[in-house]
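We modelled the chain as a single entity of 739 amino acids. Its sequence is:
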Amino acid sequence: MPGVGRGCEDGGVTATDDPRLKVGEVRAGVRRGARPGSEQVLAALDPEQREVALAVSGPVVVLAGAGTGKTRAITHRIAYSVLTGQHDPRRALAVTFTARAAGEMRQRLAELGVEGVQARTFHSAALRQLRYFWPRVVGGTIPEILPSKVRLLGPVLRRAHFSDPSLARDVASEIEWAKSSQVVAADYPAASLAARREAPSGLTRDNVADLYRAYEERKADDGLIDFEDVLLLTVGILDTRPDIADEVRSAYRWFTVDEYQDVNPLQQRLLDLWLGDRDDLCVVGDASQTIYTFTGASSSHLVDFRTRYPHATEVRLVRSYRSTPQIVALANRVLSSATGPEAKLRLELRATRTDGPEPQVSAHDDEPAEAAAVAKAIAALIAAGTQAREIAVLYRINAQSEVFEEALGEAGIPYVLRGESAFFERSEVREAVTRIRGAARGGQMSGDLGSDVRSVLSAMSWSADPPSGTGAVRDRWENLLRLVTLADDLGAADPDATLRDLVDDLDQRAATQSAPTADGVTLATVHAAKGLEWDAVFVAGLVAGTFPIQYADTPARLEEERRLFYVACTRARTHLALSWARSRTGRGRRERSPFLDAAVGRATEWSGGADSAVIRGTGSRSAPRTRRGPATCRVCGNALVTGAESARGRCRTCPASYDEALLDRLKAWRTDEAGRRSVPAYVVLTDATLETIATELPADNAALVRIPGIGARKLEAYAEAVLAIVRGDTPSSAVDEPA
């Protein structure tokens, strides 16, 4: 599906996931009752993919590079083994990491004429077993599953006298890591120290352990379980009840695990219990795309697979069907200097597409200039015929999105922020689908599908004009826009399409967790973009301290940042642009990411105005402009290394000189303002910006705007309130930020 993850990577044949074509093709196939034979299944594959399909007996390890057709290979392997009678589909279990990927796998298997194979996430498969065996082991039904740890952690934090509500999300992440790593609260301090994990800001490891323990107690008192408990409880049942373990093993004989580089210790333990002493297992992964170790994932299971199973069949997929040779060459260069255990399985991609444009690399004086240049380039692509939904701007952290939202908005370019929550579970989507279903049953149709959907959604106060500002209101508008865009696509593909056809399509998408895409440029973190692809990708904010992130302070963490950059670059099919800004708002000095050196070389050729440069690659020998010296610490005078240190104006280890009482008042105001806008606190102003305000005590707008993190937009929105707090006054209600 364009824009939000065409899981193309197909290879073998050229395929499209444009919804206007895919829906019609699937329906036509169903009407014809088409069921390909086993030889047809093999004929659709390249030689390496065919080798995967023919390896019907485990153990099998498939090392699949970005865009090389891993999903095609493993679904065709399952289909071939079933169609030739070597596997019973009812006893096959394919495990993925997202509901969307599981849905896509089921859909592809259905198109290949294979029904009955279970394709699920680890959590879905475990939950199904837990619900089935719970009455026998415990009695009754399983407890309610807590949708979010934050709901319980809020009261737990307040009881422990921690007033910052933003800590709840950080503590939740630590608890999830601990449980996925099979670490109990009492062992958390030692385990987190061994893993070199930093406690959330303002907390110690012992604090986190105490909060973890209190969270578990509160959860038990309320009769709830969380998502990690689903796996832990299933593991506990299978581990202590051999009769139930034997029952599960008799039900499932053949296993396939996708994205195996992302398996955590708890998931691997569950997989081991499913397998028992058998080895009918096919795993698929790419060690160079290991980017979730902070959640507990470990590539060691993939890296050491041949050690555990010396007789395993290994197949390497290296033909890139996604990206142009120019992008493939850059991606290979990014990984050429990689180190660590993952580098042992590094794949050298081979391009199969025709030539495309060279990747572009640009430097800018500040972030607003960078965002404006990106918006200008996007406008040019759209004018040349690229759909907005086929363009993405990727960055390292969510806080970087704001400047691009503003630049795209000013340029009149539609955009959508990609989140992680399940599209079809959002309240406004459920309401909209219910209304569309009712209108379809009532025959409320004008003959134009797009107009009919707009009419239905107008009852929910939706209009074609985007709301001002960001946050929940903007999210709601974007989600409904996706339904409108889908209706327009279906109507364009089939002028006779009706609301009933749209309902059928939405039901199919809900079953496969395949969310529709709004016709806008995608803004997303690189982590959120994993598994997706676009015609044009802009990777922005490539400065040291941001990408790689400042806390990548060990060789292993730096290598993970390198892999994350590789993932970002390989999301692009045809156009790839990399950019960085020398400062945030014209003050300070930053260095470009060292990953750019690996990708395009150190030599640069400067061209254009003062705010622009194009890095041509290693062939140029023109000297860059003279650079100012690094910013220095106001306390000790040493050079500041990271972006956060530059923003604060002092080294991380030097004592702060700010007014702590003032900082507390600023943070309290920020919490209220973030709640009013329905955005995270850092989107209002970061901790570093607040600390600088509390240190420098600005008296007017001119002084305030000189503080890093205060641009024209934030000055207009927050200056009056912030200056009032600095003076010791009570701020009046802030005005809304301009759109």
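As a brief sanity check on the tokenised model: The chain has five domains: 36-117+249-317, 147-225, 360-419+522-614, 423-512, 640-739. DSSP finds 31 helices and 17 strands in the chain.
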